[in-house]
């Protein structure tokens, strides 16, 4: 059984155009019932297909002009869960991924300026027991970001 059918995909496409679109407008556009839209969206949220409905904050518009992608080498990969919990306590870290290669984890850090970035790296991240080293790449701007095509 497939997770999404044609109605689910159509509803998601409507939400991608405008995540604030009223369910009744989606129903009208797709010529289906409002109840069906509600049920389908609720089911996709419960299944984790839709991770939540929240604003996309443009960091640079609120004074966060620096970003980095930072690889973390750990003393022991088995410490990763404990280290991830510590990273979650740092609000400037907005993403964290398990990766292969030279690093165990890759994180995205958002900072106001280079001094703020330095403090995050040296005073917060380097202080987490079990992190061996960090290697950062400064982001110069996002060329594009999108959802997977449906």
Automatic annotation (TrEMBL):
InterPro entries: AsnC-type_HTH_dom, Dimeric_a/b-barrel, Tscrpt_reg_AsnC-like, Tscrpt_reg_AsnC/Lrp_C, WH-like_DNA-bd_sf, WH_DNA-bd_sf. Residues 4-65 form the HTH asnC-type domain. It comes from the Bacteria. It holds the Pfam family AsnC_trans_reg. The keyword Membrane does not apply. Gene3D superfamilies: 3.30.70.920, Winged helix-like DNA-binding domain superfamily/Winged helix DNA-binding domain (1.10.10.10). The keyword Transcription regulation applies. Keywords: DNA-binding, Transcription, Transcription regulation. Coiled coil: none annotated. This is Lrp/AsnC family transcriptional regulator. It comes from Flavobacterium tagetis.
